[in-house]
Amino acid sequence: FNGQSFTASTSGGTRFKMIFKPDGTMIREPTGKAGIKNSGTWKLDTSGFCTTWKRAETNCYTIVAGGKNKWSVQKGASTTATWAK
């Protein structure tokens, strides 16, 4: 979470450009026609990280390596997104 952008893909196929900044803020911008631009805050917790997007509740996730420059974002046993650099 160093301010460099990466790509996030939801389980439904929506893709976003994501930026998590060191100051605890984040933004997402859709890369296609689906999805909504949003911003919020993030913080680390004991098992991963938590996000709070504007007009949404806080959600916490864990990250699992999924190959070279790929990670699965999981909430419980479910994968909610895949991140790629």
Characterization of the model:
The chain contains no helices and 8 strands. It has strands at residues 6-10, 15-20, 25-30, 38-45, 48-53, 59-65, 70-75, 78-84. The model has no long low-confidence stretch (mean pLDDT 93). It has 85 residues and is mainly β. An 8-stranded antiparallel β-barrel has the order 1-2-3-4-5-6-7-8. Helices cover 0% and strands 60% of the residues. A hairpin with a 5-residue loop joins strand 5 (48-53) and strand 6 (59-65). It is globular, with a radius of gyration of 12 Å.
Chart the SSEs and their pairings:
Layout: E1 6-10, E2 15-20, E3 25-30, E4 38-45, E5 48-53, E6 59-65, E7 70-75, E8 78-84
Antiparallel strand pairs: 1-2, 1-8, 2-3, 3-4, 4-5, 5-6, 6-7, 7-8
Which key features would you list for this structure?
0% helix; mainly beta; 85 residues; eight-stranded antiparallel β-barrel
Which blocks of ≥5 consecutive residues have pLDDT under 50?
none
Q: Largest sheet, if any?
A: 8 strands, antiparallel, barrel
- Adjacency order of strands in the biggest sheet: 1-2-3-4-5-6-7-8
User: Would you count the extended β strands for me?
Assistant: 8
The CA-CA distance between the termini, in Å, is 12 Å
Strand content: over 45%
Characterize the overall form: globular
Helix content: under 10%
Rounded radius of gyration (Å) = 12 Å
User: Mean pLDDT, rounded to whole units?
Assistant: 93
N to C succession of SSEs: EEEEEEEE
Number of discrete helical segments: 0
Structural class of the secondary elements?
A: mainly beta
